[in-house]
Amino acid sequence: MKTKNTIIWGLKIIAAVIMLQTLYYKFSAAESSVRLFTILGMEPWGRIGIGIMELIASVLLLYPRTSGFGAVMGFGLMSGAIFFHLTKLGINFDGDPLLFIYAVIVFVSCSILSVIYLKDLLAFVSKVTGIKSILPA
Question: Average pLDDT, whole number, for the chain?
Fold first, then answer.
């Protein structure tokens, strides 16, 4: 059980730290961040909005009662990042594959966490909607 907890916290911290460290570039309007979101046609609202969503996802991930929600949010955000790297930005944006690699790492971490927290997430959806058949028998 201790090993499982260590792995879960490791995945949470990895995903949150990666998302949090990119916020400086988004919120300070760093040249490369502005260029990236300009290419996507989402400057400045996309840069700031996605930064806020990554901040929320990171906080949710690190708070135990909301980790599942943060994982799903991080999974969704990184799905978009990977999609745009593969379709518009390229894997080596500005000659550096690091942004793409970070997105993949967060995507994988959040995917694993989403599976781990799936039962909790389904229980929440069932409670909110009143639909009991969401949970497996």
Answer: 94
**Residue 133 has what pLDDT?**
65
Q: How far is CA 4 from CA 9, 46, 112, 113, in A?
A: 9, 36, 12, 11
Q: Indicate the pTM of the whole model.
A: 0.92
Give yes or no for a contact between 77 and 16, defined as CB atoms under 8 angstroms apart.
no
SS (H, E, C) 45-109: HHHHHHHHHHHHHHHHHHCHHHHHHHHHHHHHHHHHHHHHHHHHHCCCHHHCCHHHHHHHHHHHH
Residues 88 and 17: their CA atoms lie apart, in Å, by 25
Distance linking the first and last C-alpha atoms of the chain: 25
Tens of pLDDT along 28-80? 999 999 999 999 999 999 999 999 999 999 999 999 999 999 999 999 999 99
C-alpha neighbours within 13 Å on the C-beta side of residue 129: 11
Q: Give me the amino acid identity at 45.
A: W
Helix 2-27 × helix 98-116 angle, to 10°: 140
Q: Is residue 96 within 8 Å of 71, Cβ to Cβ?
A: no
